[in-house]
Amino acid sequence: MGDTTMVEHKLFTMTVIENDGHILLMKRPSEKGYPGYLAPGGKVDFPESILDCAIREVKEETGLLVSNLVYKGIDEYVNEQGNVRYMVFNYWTNSFSGKLLDNPPEGELEWVAKENATSLPMQDWFKQRLPYFFKEGTFEIHVKWNEEKKKIDETLIRAT
């Protein structure tokens, strides 16, 4: 087990917004990193709360003000050799107001049919996570990265 006194924790949020069988996704360009379709989200700024971050990131990236967020689960990426843990707190909502931004900063915004979303080009980790937003209960996805081998050693998925 690694030295937990020196672990760097990085916290993020992601929010799936649903409306009439469609979900709002960003078509993120390659130059922004993590290209393909993604839900809005980003880094939690210290000392803001995780929920406040989710609301802020959606507003910054889409122009929408979300409310009544439902906590869906957590996914984390652990790199023991680098002593880093990334944690993403995932939310779902169908409550929002406002107008989509004309020039969104992270990529083109698109309402996508929920049942077709995973057929779009997207990061494998997001494709794996997306169906859990629409299931009852919560989920945990725990990924262990092996820095020396440059590959995933283990992925554990739990749903309640």
Describe this structure in words.
GO terms for molecular function: hydrolase activity, acting on acid anhydrides, in phosphorus-containing anhydrides; metal ion binding. Residues 8-135 form the Nudix hydrolase domain. By secondary structure, this protein is mainly β. The chain has a single domain (4-159), classed as Nucleoside Triphosphate Pyrophosphohydrolase. The chain is built from two helices and eleven strands, in the order ββββαβββββαββ. The protein has helices spanning 50-62, 124-129, and strands at 8-19, 22-28, 36-38, 41-43, 65-67, 70-79, 84-93, 95-97, 108-113, 139-146, 151-159. Strands 1, 2, 3, 4, 6, 7, 9, 10 and 11 form a nine-stranded mixed beta sheet that branches. Strands 5-8 form a two-stranded antiparallel sheet. β10 and β11 (151-159) form a beta hairpin. The chain is globular. The model has no long low-confidence stretch (mean pLDDT 94).
Give the topology string: H per helix, E per strand.
Answer: EEEEHEEEEEHEE
Structural class, from secondary structure content?
A: mainly beta
Mean of residue pLDDT values: 94
What is the general shape? globular
Estimated radius of gyration: 16 Å
**Beta-strand share of residues:** over 45%
CATH topology: Nucleoside Triphosphate Pyrophosphohydrolase
Tally the helices: 2
User: What is the rounded distance between the termini?
Assistant: 27 Å
CATH top level?
Alpha Beta
The domain tally reads 1
What low-confidence regions span 5 or more consecutive residues with pLDDT below 50? none
CATH superfamily: Nucleoside Triphosphate Pyrophosphohydrolase
Structure summary, number of beta strands? 11
Gross CATH architecture: Alpha-Beta Complex
State the helical fraction: 10-25%
**Main beta sheet:** 9 strands, mixed
